[in-house]
Design goal:
The complex is a heterodimer of chains A (about 450) and B (about 220). Chain A is built from nine helices and twelve strands. By secondary structure, chain A is an alpha+beta fold. Chain A has three domains: about 190 residues, no CATH class; about 80 residues, Helix Hairpins; about 160 residues, Histidine kinase-like ATPase, C-terminal domain (Heat Shock Protein 90). The model of chain A has no long low-confidence stretch (mean pLDDT about 85). Chain B starts with a strand and ends with a strand.
């Protein structure tokens, strides 16, 4: 679930939507903040002008007593919630509708709620000394507070729906495109695995650009399928054209060996020719088989294969051959390993090639171990020995067709064993790793396990 | 035995026909699919040897057509194609066995012999005998000249196959197919190693050898 979510978050449409939301919100915030600032400044400017005017009225009074009387008179008619007048006379008496005591002159922002709880909010106050006393006039900033609330509301009303619509649209588009991408990617996966019949196919609600990509992939797959089919045809033609003459040579050699008038030297030559012919047949067969596997589409012939049975069969088959050269052939097999989807015969041949490789390229008496185990949803098959191994820089080369290590030139073999192993592994979606067994070679094959529903059918 | 060989390559066809005639079989030879259909429906044969690639009607179609018409004569396919898919399609078409070119005559002859007497293999014998050797299939016991021989399951299976097809050659590839269900040719002489183990138990302690090697072909227990 969380993996799906993170994939969704990383998808292009949702990223675009999020980016647009952030951009739009930032621009809105900046412009709203600027207009708020300008309006607030002009409101505050108005309050300051009023305060200066108020003070000017009181300055007209001739002495402190007159100021006090005037303050009292005006205060009586003034709502302290809107305007506060306060005069601290030289005799320390306080006049006005609220007490504001400031030593310094000029503008201040004051709050009166401490002394007079009924007066809420902030006031802008202007203080000046007049006839030895302190006169303060304060006007409520309620208008500015109201302005802030209005602006916050505007912000909320404009931004929240935008964000919601953009986000849900983004998620919808992201999921839609994820579905489309999944369809394309499934097709590509099948093509990669060699199922050349896989097509994206036309989908009615796709946009033109996506449909075009789909059509291009289908075109490519079609071309691929055609050329693979052609290769297959050519290789089977070659097989037929070359195998018949090889068969004839075998026939002639057979006829020759039926003649009783050959001397020993001639018989030796004949045997040699037969062995060489067998070699040709075997290399030729292997090359054709590798080509067929490489161009073939897997899956269609695949069956669930019991790997335990496979390993046991091979171990049992090669055990006498191994013990003849003083080796132990150990098969380490757990009781239960998931089956693998594959071609039993090819898997057997692959394992046989690996065992024969070990038999051929290690000195007599070198033990060989076949190890089978399950790891999560993988089945790991490894064949290891403590022979001379393969130098690290050669591990890539030995998988190539007909490649042989210098020191192996004189041992029998076609140089095709490991390349067959490699193509069979690829056909089965298995990874093939040649490792240093310190010392020796460890060939490790990791297959995807067959997902089978539990139950009596899954056994056996 | 009466055998029909359907093969368009003259050299191969001649080689097969000559070899089989030397073994005392009666062989008819045709070189294309049409002639094969006419010949096979017109006369009773014990075995048909059919090349898969023929001019005109190919071998697969010939055998499908014969099977469709109710002809149950055992068929051995010859082919240049050797992949498992090809083998399966051949057997699905109604072929009974399959031989990939190039092949040695011994292999062909052993397989033809196995095909021709296939129904007899179904007989429910419980004790198989050869000379002084006795195999009890129910008790899974083997004795020779009264001495019990202890065999591993696979050795028992090999010996049973040789006894069931007594007198006929079992080639290496036939043994690999029947005993291990393996359809490729291992490079190492694995079959030889198994046979030599079996011989060490069945033949070596006694005066005579029952399991005979047929040079270049395979193994046989004489009747």
């Amino acid at each position: 679930m969380s993996a799906r979510l993170s994939r969704l978050l990383r998808s292009m449409p949702l990223k675009l939507a999020l980016g647009l939301v952030i951009l739009f919100s930032t621009v809105s915030l900046i412009s709203l903040a600027a207009s708020y600032f300008v309006t607030q400044q002009s409101l505050e400017q108005g309050i300051r002008a009023n305060l200066t005017q108020d003070l000017a009225g009181f300055r007209a009074a001739p002495n402190a007593g007159a100021v006090a009387a005037l303050v009292e008179a005006v205060a009586r008619e003034t709502d302290p919630e809107r305007r506060v007048l306060s005069y601290l006379a030289p005799n320390r008496r306080q006049y006005g509708n609220a007490a504001i005591a400031r030593d310094d002159e000029g503008y201040h922002i004051v709050s009166l709620s401490q002394d007079s709880p009924e007066l809420k909010g902030q006031y802008l106050a202007l203080t000046t000394s007049l006839y030895g006393g302190q006169l303060t006039v304060a006007r409520s900033r309620a208008e500015i507070d109201a302005l802030r609330r209005v602006f916050v509301n505007i912000l909320g009303l404009s931004l929240v729906p935008t964000i919601l619509i953009a986000l849900s649209g983004g998620i919808y588009l992201a999921r839609r495109s994820a579905r489309h991408v999944a369809r394309v990617s499934r097709t590509l996966d099948r093509l990669t695995r060699g199922d050349l019949k896989a097509r994206v196919g036309p989908v009615p609600d796709w946009s033109d650009d996506l449909a075009e990509i789909g059509a291009k992939i289908d075109q490519m797959a079609h071309a691929q399928e055609g050329s693979v089919e052609a290769i297959r045809q050519v290789s089977s033609d070659i097989a037929h054209d070359l195998k018949t003459p090889i068969q004839r040579v075998a026939v002639h050699l057979d006829d020759l060996s039926q003649r009783g008038d050959l001397d020993d030297a001639a018989n030796d030559l004949l045997d040699q020719a037969k062995r060489e012919l067998d070699g040709i047949v075997s290399v030729f067969g292997s090359l054709l088989q590798i080509a067929q596997i490489e161009s073939g589409s897997p899956g269609s012939q695949f069956q669930p294969v019991d790997m335990i049975g496979l390993v046991s069969t091979c171990a049992e088959l090669y055990e006498p051959a191994a013990s003849e050269s003083g080796r132990r052939l150990n098969a380490v097999v757990p009781e239960d390993v998931p089956r693998v989807s594959g071609d039993r015969n090819l898997l057997l041949q692959m394992l046989a090639n690996l065992i024969e490789n070990a038999l051929r390229h290690t000195p007599d008496g070198t033990d060989i171990t076949i190890d089978l185990k399950a790891r999560g949803d993988r089945v790991i098959l490894s064949i290891s020995d403590h022979g001379p191994g393969i130098p690290a820089h050669e591990t890539e080369n030995v998988l190539q067709r007909l490649y042989r290590l210098d020191r192996s030139r004189l041992t029998p073999g076609s140089g095709l064993g490991l390349s067959l192993v490699s193509v069979v592994a690829r056909l089965h979606g298995a990874t093939l790793v040649l490792e240093d067994n310190r010392p020796g070679l460890r060939v490790c094959l990791t297959f995807p396990a067959l997902q089978e529903p539990p139950g009596p059918l899954a056994q056996g | 035995m009466k055998i029909l060989v359907v093969e368009d390559d003259e050299t191969t066809a001649g080689f097969i026909a000559r070899g089989l005639r030397e073994e005392g079989q009666s062989v008819d030879l045709v070189t294309d699919g049409r002639a094969a259909l006419i010949q096979a429906t017109g006369a009773e044969y014990d075995v048909l040897i059919v090349d898969r690639m023929l001019p005109g009607i190919d071998g697969l179609t010939v055998v499908k057509t014969l099977r469709g018409a109710g002809n149950q004569t055992p068929v051995l396919f010859l082919t240049s194609l050797g992949s498992v898919d090809d083998r399966i399609s051949g057997l699905n078409a109604g072929g009974d066995d399959y031989l990939v070119k190039p092949f040695a005559f011994g292999e062909l002859s052993a397989r033809v012999a196995a095909l021709a007497r296939r129904p007899k293999a179904l007989e429910q014998e419980t004790v198989l005998r050869a000379g002084d050797l006795e195999m009890d299939l129910i008790a899974r016991k083997v004795t020779r000249a009264g001495t019990e021989i202890d065999l591993l399951p696979r050795e028992f299976a090999i010996l049973e196959l040789l006894l069931r097809r007594k007198g006929r050659i079992q080639t290496r590839t036939m043994l690999l197919e029947t005993i291990w269900d393996i359809r490729f040719d291992p490079m190492t002489n694995v079959v030889e190693t198994h046979i030599s183990r079996l011989r060490a138990k069945v033949d070596k302690p006694f005066d005579s050898d029952l399991i005979k090697t047929v040079r270049g072909s395979g193994y046989r227990i004489e009747g």
